């Protein structure tokens, strides 16, 4: 089933959900990744493999990381071809001085923000969803 492409419908139905875990980003050579590590996402770059995982898992495996992030899932099933969704999300957060990293998966978009700004970020995205009703 294809995801939603209409930006106005997406914004109206964002329904951002704050996942409870503290999340971190780390990078390492492929050969250094333990077989038993649980991660949220894995991305191969020429410099190494980036893992997004819970802080708990990173500490357990003694991975180095910088920063702690909150993981917000956009509940609506969005299309990978939706135009301007990332711009709308990042722009709204930038207006509140919140940096973000957006990862688009098959069903949902996931937004990672500074953990200490998680409540402001959720409020911001909920307000963005409300603004989608009035456009």
Task: Give your account of this protein's structure.
It is a single chain. The protein has 135 residues and is an alpha+beta fold. The protein has a single domain, classed as VC0802-like (2-Layer Sandwich). It is 28% helix and 31% strand. A 6-stranded antiparallel beta sheet has the order 2-3-1-4-6-5. Strand 5 and strand 6 form a beta hairpin. Helix 3 packs across helix 4. The longest helix is centred in the C-terminal third of the chain and has 16 residues. The protein is globular and about 45 Å long.
Biggest sheet descriptor: 6 strands, antiparallel
Name the average pLDDT.
92
Q: Over all CA atoms, what is the radius of gyration? A: 16 Å
Q: What percent of the residues sit in helical stretches (DSSP H or I)? A: 25-40%
So what's the overall shape? globular
How many beta-strand segments?
Answer: 6
């Amino acid at each position: 089933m294809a995801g939603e492409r209409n930006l106005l419908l997406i914004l109206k139905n964002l329904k951002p959900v704050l996942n409870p875990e503290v999340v971190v980003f780390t990078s390492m050579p492929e050969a250094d990744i333990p077989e038993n590590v649980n991660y949220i996402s894995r991305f191969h770059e020429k410099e190494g493999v980036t893992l997004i995982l819970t802080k708990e898992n990173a500490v357990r495996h003694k991975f180095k990381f910088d920063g702690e992030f909150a993981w917000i899932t956009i509940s609506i099933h969005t299309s990978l071809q939706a135009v301007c969704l990332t711009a709308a999300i990042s722009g709204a957060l930038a207006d509140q001085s919140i940096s973000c990293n957006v990862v688009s998966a098959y069903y949902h978009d996931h937004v990672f923000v500074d953990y200490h700004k998680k409540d402001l970020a959720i409020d911001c995205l909920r307000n963005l969803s409300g603004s989608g009703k009035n456009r």
